[in-house]
Design goal:
The structure is a single chain. By secondary structure, the chain is mainly alpha-helical. About 55% of the residues lie in helices and about 0% in strands.
Length: about 60
């Protein structure tokens, strides 16, 4: 799923490790999301959007539109 996760993370000067810790996932999971090798669960997508204080639609592209 296309997303803006890396851009949002870099804007805050966070490493993948730091973002993973904030979300309760591994650095490898963050990397898989950023490189679009893995889609987030609905719960994780909402946690990411809350962390960055943005609607889910601002972080993840809806593939059905």
């Amino acid at each position: 799923m296309k997303n803006r996760l890396k851009l949002l993370r870099v804007e805050r000067n966070w490493t993948q490790e730091q973002l993973g810790q904030a979300l309760g996932v591994s650095r490898q999971a963050v990397n898989a999301l950023e490189t679009e090798k893995h889609d987030p669960s609905l719960d994780l997508a909402y946690r990411i959007s809350a962390l960055f204080e943005r609607p889910v639609e601002d972080v993840f592209e809806n593939p059905h539109v």
